[in-house]
Design brief:
About 35% of the residues lie in helices and about 20% in strands. The chain has one domain. Strands 2-1-3-4-5-6 form a six-stranded antiparallel beta sheet. Helix 1 (about 5-50) packs across helix 2 (about 60-65). The N and C termini lie far apart (about 80 Å). It is of the alpha+beta class and about 230 residues long.
Length: about 230
């Protein structure tokens, strides 16, 4: 075959594409279990962080078993337990459903003999998805801890939701008023300094991301109201 001809060039390119695609598919499948394990470990680190338990990729699994283990379940909108593994619920898919059709994962952590109720949340920031975990004290209304993450918020602005100064504001805030009405937590400028038990300060220059956190909490926490009021 004429190596200078178009036919040879076409065949050569086609074979090369097939070989490269096969190699990439093989590498992807080989690394998939490792990638999945890393995702699970990162999730456990975030869950533990919401109850102020520090962990690393080396000890996250052990600490998760110590503090939470199998003490998790799935709720429906009515606050009743349903079948399934809370850890495997894909919140990205669930938040796209109407609230009454969603699955609501719940994790129970015991620290110093006191139960903490951990709720996962997910929403939209300025440039992409935001997510996190809110832990409640055993009164089921007072926030014990909070942690948030993001995919692409602006460094120094919206990305501040992933840092301690913003997250620590949530500790001690309540998501129900004295009459038992669900309030969630507002994220607005100057609210924390005013002593509002249902609000924290927004991020300076990160208004849209702050509003995204507020909307995320309102949307996700409201699905747990029936369970929390039991």
């Amino acid at each position: 075959m004429d190596r200078q001809g178009n036919t040879y060039t076409f065949i050569y390119a086609s074979v090369l594409v097939v070989v490269v695609a096969a190699l990439l598919a093989f590498v992807s499948q080989t690394l998939k279990p490792i990638q999945q394990k890393n995702i699970e470990v990162a999730k456990k680190i975030d869950i533990l962080k919401s109850v102020n338990v520090a962990s690393t990729p080396k000890d996250a699994v052990e600490k998760y078993e110590e503090y939470i283990g199998n003490n998790s379940f799935i709720l429906n909108y009515e606050g009743k337990k349903v079948e399934g593994d809370a850890f495997t619920v894909n919140l990205e898919k669930e938040v796209k459903k109407p609230p009454k059709d969603r699955l609501y994962p719940m994790y129970i952590c015991t620290i110093d003999g006191s139960k903490k109720f951990i709720i996962p949340v997910r929403g939209k920031g300025l440039w992409g998805p935001i997510w996190g975990y809110i832990s409640l004290n055993d009164d089921k209304k007072t926030i014990f801890g909070a942690t948030f993450g993001h995919k692409g918020e602006t460094p120094g602005l919206g990305a501040e939701i992933a840092k301690a100064p913003f997250q620590k504001q949530f500790s001690g805030k309540t998501i129900f008023d004295d009459n038992g009405k669900f309030t969630s937590v507002l994220v607005e400028k100057g609210q924390n300094s005013s002593g509002n038990p249902h609000a924290v300060d927004a991020i300076s220059g990160g208004t849209i991301t702050s509003k995204g956190v507020q909307a995320m909490l309102q949307d996700c926490l409201s699905g747990y109201v029936n369970f929390l009021k039991e």
